[in-house]
Specification:
The protein has 195 residues and is α/β, with parallel strands linked by helices. The protein has 8 helices and 7 strands; from the N terminus they run αααββαβαβαβαβαβ. Strand 5, helix 7 and strand 6 form a beta-alpha-beta unit. Bound molecules: zinc ion.
């Protein structure tokens, strides 16, 4: 039987996605062998995660009310790339090919349930209030991602904003998160206007 604190940590790790009990045991053993200093750094960073919040404007992860991308005057504030979650922002930022801002929906529309937490009404508000010139629909090329884009296109059309969709080349069913930088950068450059 493991000591109590060891057991408690195994339980913590097992609660994480894709970590089974055996994997959790190995992680705890790994940490046990680390230096006091490393563990201190690890636990402080863990606590700091709760100082993060969602950007009040684009709903990306942020250290303050407004994220660094929204606050950057060098970014094109009139072009908004609409993505499903903050990890997609990270993938697109990695390409260095995009200089506009974002809007994080927080998920997708599904056929079975209505999700009121999606930041869709906020997007409409932003377009009107900020005089947005172009909306790039960059949901994942999955059935639900496509369905969400189609819905947004229909709703956004009357607002008179230019609407584009990432170019093909991204493999169907895959997540933006796993697309390589070159493919993603080309998909951005080859984006097509939806009329
Ligand atoms: Zn932001």
């Amino acid at each position: 039987m493991y000591p109590k604190s060891f057991q408690k940590l195994i339980k913590n790790f097992s609660s994480l996605p894709s970590i089974g009990p055996k994997h959790a045991e190995r992680l705890v053993l790994f940490l046990f062998k680390k230096s006091q200093e490393d563990i201190k750094d690890f636990s402080e960073n863990l606590l700091d995660i709760k100082n993060l919040q969602f950007c009040k404007r684009c709903h990306n992860i942020s250290e303050g009310d407004i994220c660094q991308i929204c606050a950057n005057a060098k970014r094109d504030q009139k072009t908004v790339c609409v993505v499903e979650d903050p990890l997609d922002v990270i993938s697109i930022e990695r390409t260095h090919a995009y200089h506009g801002v974002y809007h994080v929906l927080g998920g997708v529309i599904t056929a079975t349930e209505k999700d009121d937490s999606l930041k869709i009404p906020d997007l409409f508000e932003r377009i009107k209030k900020e005089g947005i010139a172009e909306i790039i629909l960059a949901t994942n090329p999955t059935t639900e991602g496509d369905m969400t884009s189609l819905y947004l296109k229909r709703k956004l059309h009357p607002l008179g904003v230019k609407i584009t969709r990432l170019g093909r080349g991204l493999s169907t069913g895959a997540d933006l998160e796993y697309a390589d930088e070159l493919t993603l950068s080309e998909a951005l450059t080859n984006r097509k206007e939806l009329l």
